[in-house]
Fold this sequence. Notes:
- The protein is an alpha/beta fold.
- The chain has four helices and five strands; from the N terminus they run E-E-E-H-E-H-H-E-H.
- It has helices at 41-54, 69-76, 85-95, 112-126; strands at residues 2-10, 15-25, 28-39, 61-66, 99-104.
- The chain has a five-stranded mixed sheet with strand order 3-2-1-4-5.
Amino acid sequence: MIQIYTDGYCLGNPGPGGWGAVIVEKDNIIEISGKEIDTTNNRMEISAVIRGLEHTKEFQKIKIFSDSQYVINTMIKNWKRKANIDLWQKLDELVNKREVLWEWVRGHEGNFYNEKAHNLAYKAAISI
């Protein structure tokens, strides 16, 4: 099973932001990140998951780890989607072609890969 650790970060909300994802498949670890000049923290959280999933193939089994209750609970508890509709649609397209499990992790509690994802998002945001 592929594990993807994701995080988003925003300097102000809205403001400059970044996202990061760490994709772990056996001994192969891929770190990816990106940034946006004017965004929100929630958009960066969703973007991190999308970008991570885009690095996987259809029909793979994947476990997403995120400290975003917004992302996790929207996906597993069907929270209402009142904003970021474009990103939710993209995420749904990717999830519908994969077997995805969701796990919330408490942020900044020492989870190694979650901290790596956070650092990637933070560095992307401050590089703007």
